[in-house]
Design a protein that fits this description.
EC number: 1.3.1.70
Number of helices: 24
Membrane topology: Multi-pass membrane protein
Oligomer: single chain
Pfam families: ERG4_ERG24 (PF01222), LBR_tudor (PF09465)
Family: Belongs to the ERG4/ERG24 family.
Shape: globular
Structural class: alpha+beta
Strand order of the largest sheet: 4-3-2-1-5
Bound molecules: NADPH dihydro-nicotinamide-adenine-dinucleotide phosphate, the ligand CC(C)=CCC[C@@H](C)[C@H]1CC=C2C3=C(CC[C@@]21C)[C@@]1(C)CC[C@H](O)C(C)(C)[C@@H]1CC3
Largest sheet: 5 strands, antiparallel
Organism: Cyclopterus lumpus
Distance between the termini: 53 Å
Number of domains: 3
Radius of gyration: 28 Å
């Protein structure tokens, strides 16, 4: 009441006005409940019961609007787009729900073709869900409809969707000006963001969570079933090719096939012993009860897993252990001279682990399976990973393998290469090139471990199952191909002038800054969308209850973190010079990997977020490189 008496307050308690739905151009009829003079926010209630806080600029007098019938807005274009839209099932079924919360479709009287397109677009925006109980109240009256809706939603992983499409109104050119406070008033007490609260599963959600993953499975990628066979054979063969190439004086693609060693040369029991010891040592560090217990993102079941994020401690202890071993006279150049055998041993471990993972996934409950690795085809699911988060008690195999033995092993191998260079070239200290490669990659790994919690919001952890692709990637690909630049420098010295060093360091730092800032921004937002530090960012709400960042780093390109990563990759290759293609292998591979990952992520997000994702893509036009790609 205190605030309502102030002269600057435009709307009074109880006034019916039009309120903009956050992140869109849609205006709905709302009732003003309160005004907070401190924050200058109005608390309003929409007809479906959603309470939000809005700024005055996002509210308008109802008299300035004219109504528009739904049928008029359904242009042929719209029908086309509907039939293409992955959100169509949800949209149609939920439009019936919307009947309960209908207001008339209205426009502000501005008519232009641009506006029609925008209206068409905005009508497709699916809005944030109501709390389950409320949604059930609104939607649950007609049992027949509810049943039908369940069936229609079978292929949609989104939670209950509530749509107010009939009440769409578009106003103003600045569709996402300012961030909206999406916290409901009753949540203010615990100040928890809507999306990080454990979900109260409604009947439908419980059914979705328990549904066999096969019925929800996403389209196959990596060339599908045939592709899986190809990658299962090609990836190990390619690693072998690279490892044999880097040993040659003149590594070149034209040396194909490179001279193959005898079969016995691959096997070394001691090398296998070292690999197993290293993995066990890392496992021991992982289970130490030190460091934070971080929560992962909610699973389909609504549950959140806990992860021990003590990676920085693990790399610190590992460094001390390695330093002590060197001090005790352990010759780390063994890693250089037995590279092939160590690779073969790690490959063996990765294959055995993948078989174990596949077998155990056969006994896993539906809700524990990855949607992307549940095709029903053995080779594909073995490759892509059938179970999402395989765990032995609290020990998370995917998280451990991705962040520990291979990643920390990468630094150990690089360090061994620096020692091997000094030995082979008769140097008192490693070359500038070797130092740069070592420091750059060490920074990358240590940063990843320092920010270990951020991995929990990456694709691998959230969506990909744990199978051969990641087991092999983590235990073989990362430690034995990401180290090729250091390996190459052992016998292919490349002199760098100081200005060249300065230029490469600058490039690395720029890349690192973009990479770190963008990853941290997304991670912080996913963890707490109401974080005051992010209040300057603009968002697009989606039907799943999660929002998409549309400004800040994620408003520059759709994958700013990939851009930073690519700049860093360039800085890792430059110290090796231009004599051979081999040290540029990582750069080339990484472009392919990230372009493919971006495409995978795009289709996954389109499936998840429907038209909200399309809206994001229209606003943020470029994928990785501003104005180029
Ligand atoms: N060195 C290496 O070998 C590799 C390094 N990487 C690096 O790992 C990091 C993680 O990469 P990756 O897991 O591929 O992808 P991202 O960390 O970019 O994660 C993609 C997910 O982020 C969410 N998202 C996308 N756009 C937005 C937005 N606008 N607002 C909010 N959330 C959004 C979506 O998930 P949701 O909405 O479900 O939360 C999407 O599925 C990157 O820095 C990458 O460069 C990756 C692969 C290999
Ligand atoms: C060809 C093939 C077998 C591909 C498998 C891909 C994996 C090698 C990569 C998938 C995502 C990865 C990430 C990292 C390493 C490579 C893999 C496993 C990462 C741990 C490197 C360090 C970073 O700081 C990171 C934590 C962001 C990153 C996460 C993704």
């Amino acid at each position: 009441m205190r605030s309502m008496k102030m002269p600057t307050v435009r709307y009074q308690n109880g006034d019916m006005v039009m309120g903009r739905w956050p992140g869109s151009n849609l205006y709905y009829e709302v009732k003003v409940l309160d005004f907070d003079a401190k924050s200058s926010l109005y608390t309003v209630i929409y007809k479906d019961g959603t309470e939000l806080e809005l700024k005055e600029q996002d509210m308008k007098n109802a008299s300035g609007f004219q109504t528009r019938s739904r049928s008029r807005s359904r242009s042929p274009g719209r029908r086309r787009s509907q039939s293409r839209s992955p959100a169509r099932t949800t949209r149609r079924s939920s439009s019936r729900m919307a009947a309960a919360v209908t207001t008339a479709a209205i426009t502000d009287g501005v008519t232009s073709s641009r506006k029609d397109t925008r209206l068409k677009d905005s009508l497709e925006i699916r809005l944030s869900p109501l709390p389950q109980t409320k949604a059930a109240e609104n939607n649950g009256n007609n049992k027949h409809e509810k049943k039908e809706e369940k069936q229609k939603d079978e292929n949609n992983t989104a939670n209950t969707v509530n749509e107010k499409s009939e009440a769409a109104v578009e106003v103003g050119p600045d569709k996402t000006q300012g961030r909206y406070n999406l916290r409901r008033r009753k949540d203010d007490g615990d100040a928890k963001p809507v999306e990080t609260k454990p979900k109260q599963l409604g009947e439908k959600d419980a059914k979705l969570a328990a549904a066999p993953a096969a019925s929800l499975a996403t389209p196959l990628d990596f060339g599908g079933k045939i592709g899986a066979y190809f990658w299962l054979l090609f990836l190990p063969a390619w690693v072998l090719f690279l490892v044999l190439q880097v040993n040659l004086e003149d590594p070149s693609l034209t040396n194909f096939p490179p001279p193959l060693p005898a079969l016995e040369a691959f096997w070394d029991a001691q090398a296998l012993g070292f690999v197993i010891l290293w993995i066990l040592f890392q496992a021991l560090l992982y289970i130490l009860p030190v460091g934070k217990l971080s929560e992962g993102v909610p699973l389909r079941s609504g549950k959140k897993l806990k992860y021990r994020t003590n990676g920085f401690c693990a790399v610190a202890v590992s460094s001390l252990a390695v330093a002590a071993a060197v001090h005790q006279g352990v010759d780390l150049t063994y890693i250089h001279s037995h590279f092939l055998q160590l690779t073969a041993a790690s490959f063996l471990v990765a294959v055995l682990l993948s078989v174990y993972l596949y077998v155990r996934s056969q006994y896993a409950a539906g809700e524990q399976l990855a949607l992307g690795g549940s095709s029903g085809n053995v080779a594909y699911d073995f490759f892509k990973g059938h179970e999402l988060n395989p765990r032995i008690k609290e020990f998370d195999l995917k998280f451990f393998c991705e962040m520990r033995p291979g990643l920390i092993g990468w630094c150990l191998i690089n360090f061994a290469m620096a020692l091997a260079e000094m030995k082979q070239q008769g140097l008192d200290a490693p070359s500038y090139s070797m130092i740069l490669v070592n420091l750059f990659q060490l920074l990358y790994v240590v940063d990843g471990l320092w920010n270990e919690e951020a991995i929990l919001t990456t694709m691998d952890l959230m969506h990909d199952g744990f199978g051969f692709m990641l087991a092999f990637g983590d235990l073989v690909w990362v430690p034995f191909t990401y180290t090729l630049q250091a390996y190459y420098l052992v016998s292919h010295p490349n002199h760098l002038s100081l200005p060249a060093v300065a230029a490469i360091v600058t490039l690395k730092l720029v890349g690192f800054y973009i990479f770190r800032k963008s990853n941290s921004e997304k991670n912080a937002f996913r963890r707490n969308p109401s974080d005051p530090k992010l209040s300057h960012l603009q968002i697009i709400p989606t039907a799943t209850g999660k929002s998409l960042l549309v400004s800040g780093w994620w408003g520059v390109v759709r994958h700013p973190n990939y851009l930073g990563d690519l700049l860093m990759a360039l800085a890792w290759s430059l110290p090796c010079g231009f004599s051979h293609l081999l040290p540029w292998y990582y750069m080339i591979y990484f472009i392919i990997l990230l372009v493919h990952r971006d495409a995978r992520d795009m289709s996954e997000c389109r499936r998840k977020y429907g038209s909200a994702w399309d809206e994001y893509c229209r606003t943020v036009r470029y994928r990785i490189i501003p104005r180029v790609y």
